[in-house]
């Protein structure tokens, strides 16, 4: 799972963004402002990971504890190399003392407002971690491929259940109020997610999950042949499928929007390694794989880019991409 956003916000905030040994100001890996690679900060585990164990016993910790902020120290790359090369001198206990002394020194220079900001940042970061894991951002490509590639939208049951919990959870959150644009972006995500789920539900078979997936009913299929009725239902079915797909594109757009705001307000290195969320679709007779990167652009980047389902039915054709269906 790796180091959570909260652990990184706690580590970088309480370290004052500086190396615990030489006090050099550091930037996060992937930060676009990082034109000096030697200023990139390393989040170094005190008790190291199994693969690169230099200190302590890896068997003592599980992976969750290894990646907690209490087991991490922020160092410049030079000091990181130094402590690894001199592991007998830089024991876990010694590094723990260095970390504690550095964080105490940083906190001593804080104003009451600095303290409040750090507390607020940690609250936001915890919520963003919940949002990331419930949304399963790390498997977004797989989720999108199931939803968009076939002739009927299919949703992984575990993702659906988590999303069902997430939407109301986000809508009732009380936020610190420090970064209203980030809060709006999360509210926007919750709104799109609620609408996606309610539209999907209209024709989903929620009673059965087939191999862990919920399927859309092909409601145009009928035992009695009635050409006019059939063609009317196929049209309705196609419109439904294209709306579900376009709502998922909008959800991806709004998730990328949240990530942009997290990088702007909380932590510049957030999901920089993974990059933007993309939608994977397998289309055509040969199931060619193509990728879309839906994002709000230009004048769409306002506090509330999504204005409800009725508005979206026409606005979707003005977005950077849409799937299926044509503007009526
Ligand atoms: Zn240093």
Structure description:
- 48% of the residues lie in helices and 10% in strands.
- By secondary structure, it is mainly alpha-helical.
- The protein has two domains: 5-109, no CATH class; 115-318, no CATH class.
- A hairpin with a 2-residue loop joins strand 4 (204-210) and strand 5.
- Helix 7 packs across helix 8 (180-202).
- The structure holds zinc ion.
- Zinc ion binds next to strand 2 and helix 3.
The biggest beta sheet is recorded as: 3 strands, antiparallel
Query: What is the tally of beta strands?
Result: 7
Overall spatial form: elongated
The whole-number mean of residue pLDDT values reads 90
Bound molecules: zinc ion
DSSP summary: helix tally = 10
Number of domains: 2
Low confidence ranges: none
Approximate strand percentage: 5-15%
Oligomer: single chain
Compute the separation of the termini in Å: 44 Å
Question: Order of strands across the widest beta sheet?
Answer: 3-5-4
In terms of structural class, how would the helical and strand content be classed? mainly alpha
The proportion of residues forming helix, as a percent range, comes to 40-55%
Using the CA coordinates, give the radius of gyration.
24 Å
């Amino acid at each position: 799972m790796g180091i959570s956003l909260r652990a990184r916000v706690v580590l970088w905030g309480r370290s004052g963004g500086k190396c615990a040994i030489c006090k050099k100001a550091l930037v996060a890996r992937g930060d676009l402002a990082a034109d000096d690679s030697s200023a990139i900060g390393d989040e170094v585990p005190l008790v190291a990971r199994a693969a690169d164990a230099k200190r302590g016993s890896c068997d003592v910790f599980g992976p969750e504890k290894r990646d907690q902020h209490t087991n991490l120290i922020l160092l410049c790359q030079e000091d990181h190399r130094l402590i690894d090369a001199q592991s007998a001198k830089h024991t876990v206990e010694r590094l723990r003392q260095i970390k504690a002394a550095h964080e105490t020194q940083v906190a001593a220079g804080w104003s009451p407002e600095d303290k409040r900001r750090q507390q607020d940042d940690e609250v936001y970061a915890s919520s963003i971690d919940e949002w990331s894991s419930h949304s399963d951002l790390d498997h977004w490509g797989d989720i999108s491929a199931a939803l968009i590639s076939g002739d009927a939208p299919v949703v992984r049951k575990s993702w659906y259940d988590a999303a069902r919990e997430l939407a109301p959870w986000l809508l009732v959150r009380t936020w610190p109020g420090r970064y209203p644009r980030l809060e709006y972006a999360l509210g926007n995500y919750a709104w799109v997610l609620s609408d996606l789920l309610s539209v999907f539900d209209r024709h989903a078979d929620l009673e059965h999950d087939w191999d862990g997936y919920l399927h859309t009913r092909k409601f145009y299929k009928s035992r009695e042949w009635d050409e006019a009725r059939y063609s009317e239902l196929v049209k309705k079915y196609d419109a439904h499928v294209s709306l579900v797909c376009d709502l998922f594109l909008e959800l991806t757009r709004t998730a990328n929007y949240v990530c942009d705001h997290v990088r702007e307000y909380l932590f510049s290195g957030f999901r920089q390694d993974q990059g933007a969320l993309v939608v994977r679709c397998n289309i055509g007779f040969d199931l060619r794989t193509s990728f879309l990167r839906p994002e709000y652009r230009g004048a769409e980047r306002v506090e509330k880019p999504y204005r409800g389902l009725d508005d979206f039915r026409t606005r979707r054709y003005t977005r950077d991409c849409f799937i299926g269906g044509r503007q009526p």
